[in-house]
Specification:
The protein has about 300 residues and is α/β, with parallel strands linked by helices. It is built from 14 helices and six strands.
């Protein structure tokens, strides 16, 4: 289930990439930002994570640990509740439906062939998984396959999990912006199953684009270049339907919580890097509310 957690967040991150728009005027580089001004007694910090990279990569960005040490609280997207893992796994299943019944035989053959090449199983073996969960699994496997040499250099826990664990160990307040159930509901239930099946077929047909996106995404993240992230996102197809619910809507919802947390005490806020970007990203939304948001070099 820890793998499922990483799979989920990787999917949210990558689909976010497909719909992120360019926000002109923001800083070119930077994964770590300081938030100050307005009613804040002390600054907070905003850090963009990459959910498939682990805590060992953070040794290459010493400012992250330094900034986290200054904060009194840590904010992450979600925290794993081991008592609910079995229930959450069941959320990926559709007991009364099959993917093969929602697409044409030709499309089913196409999807099945790609699953066999990637995972060693055909569509029949996972026919009752919700199509979005299959997309998430394939996304994770593409990334692991194409970025294997880079990822194996960084053993350890996913960044978000590590940061929450360190915070608890140091007796800092840990706040989750969402529950895992909310994230899974977002992933598995936002679109009707028939629409999910359509998106799965598109995803498989765009295999080469999706594979390239996995290696390019990590390359851009490692360069800490948000502007390039915008431009790359603009170059990708946007035919997986409206995905404001993955970035814009969640950012707006988080902004109902973050100002109060930062006013109470200094926070280290760690969320997927794409939540920082664009006109509806956290950097822009915080600036619009009167905060000063500057990169930590």
């Amino acid at each position: 289930m820890a793998q499922l957690f990483r799979l989920l967040q990787a999917f949210l991150f990558v689909v976010g990439l497909l719909v992120t728009q360019v926000a002109f005027g923001q800083s070119k580089n930077g994964l770590l930002w300081q938030v100050s001004g307005k009613d804040l007694k002390e600054p907070s910090y905003l850090f963009g994570t990459y959910h498939l990279l682990t805590n060992s990569y953070l040794t290459e960005i010493p400012q992250v640990n330094q900034s986290m040490a200054k904060a009194k609280g840590v904010v992450v997207e979600a925290v794993i509740d081991s008592s609910k893992l079995q229930h959450m796994a069941m959320m990926a299943i559709m007991p009364d439906k099959k993917i093969s019944d929602m697409i044409t035989p030709q499309e089913a053959n196409l999807v099945s062939a790609e699953l066999e090449a990637l995972m060693g199983v055909n569509l029949a073996a996972i026919d009752q998984l919700k199509p979005s969960s299959v997309i998430a699994l394939m996304t994770l496997l593409y990334s692991q396959k194409l970025n294997a040499e880079i990822l194996k250099k960084y053993p350890g826990l996913p960044m978000d999990v590590h940061l929450a664990a360190v915070a608890k160990r140091n007796h800092k307040t840990v706040t989750a912006l969402e529950t895992l159930e909310q994230q899974l509901d977002l992933l598995y239930n936002h679109f009707p199953l028939q629409e999910q099946a359509r998106q799965l077929v598109i995803f498989v047909k765009q295999k080469k684009i999706n594979e390239q996106a996995q290696s390019k995404l990590l390359e851009i993240y490692l360069d800490h270049d948000l502007q390039q992230l915008y431009h790359y996102a603009e170059s990708l197809p946007k035919d997986m339907d409206n995905s404001d619910f993955l970035l814009k809507d969640r950012n707006l919802n988080w902004m109902k919580t973050l100002p109060g947390l930062m006013a109470k005490e200094s926070q280290f806020i760690a969320v997927g890097a794409l939540h920082l970007t664009g006109p509806d990203g956290l950097i822009s939304l915080l600036q619009k509310q009167g905060y000063k948001v500057t990169p930590v070099n």
